[in-house]
Design brief:
Layout (H helix, E strand, L loop, with lengths): L1 E4 L5 H17 L11 H9 L3 E6 L2 E11 L11 E9 L8 H16 L3 E6 L3 H9 L3 E8 L2 E8 L1
Parallel strand pairs: 4-5
Antiparallel strand pairs: 1-2, 2-3, 3-4, 5-7, 6-7
């Protein structure tokens, strides 16, 4: 397993992964992400060095983003902290601890920067909330976002 920054050449594979995972989640009743993903949004994340890929045997099987939080008024976050988002692993590779590897990578990354890491999920996703807690993330609380609640976690 290897993690590296995404490249523009990876864009189509990342869109495939994000769209596949989104449809899989929606079939399970989890509506955290909209389908289909916006090509320009992902391209901008890649260009701004926010987007990472997870490779197994040189094949991209997952993706995630770590970007800067400047200010989010609604949530209790520290300024200039980092935000881990869009963790997506192809369904056939799920359940093999790749999510833990991504979380550990992100936690080590922010620890080296002496920053705090935040992440969230749809408040109804109990499985993911348990996963975050098992991986050493502190539950902050549930917060209203548009017409649903999200659960916020942090690592510092």
């Amino acid at each position: 397993m290897k993690i590296r920054l995404a490249k523009l050449d990876d864009l189509q594979q990342l869109l495939y992964i994000l769209n596949t995972v989104t449809l899989d989640l929606q079939q399970k009743g989890i509506h955290q992400w909209d389908y289909p993903w916006d090509h320009n949004k992902i391209a901008n994340q890649i260009k701004n060095n926010f987007c990472y890929v997870l490779l197994v045997d040189k094949k991209i099987i997952g993706t995630f983003c770590i970007n800067e939080i400047d200010n989010i008024n609604e949530f209790p976050v520290e300024l200039k902290s980092k935000y881990l988002s869009q963790i997506a692993i192809l369904p056939e590779f799920q359940g093999r601890n790749f999510g833990s590897s991504i979380t550990q990578f992100a936690c080590s990354f922010v620890k080296g920067l002496r920053k705090t890491l935040y992440l969230d999920c749809w408040a109804g996703n109990e499985k993911l909330k348990e996963f975050y807690s098992r991986n050493g993330l502190e539950y902050i609380g549930d917060f209203l976002e548009e017409d649903y609640y999200i659960s916020i976690f942090k690592y510092s």
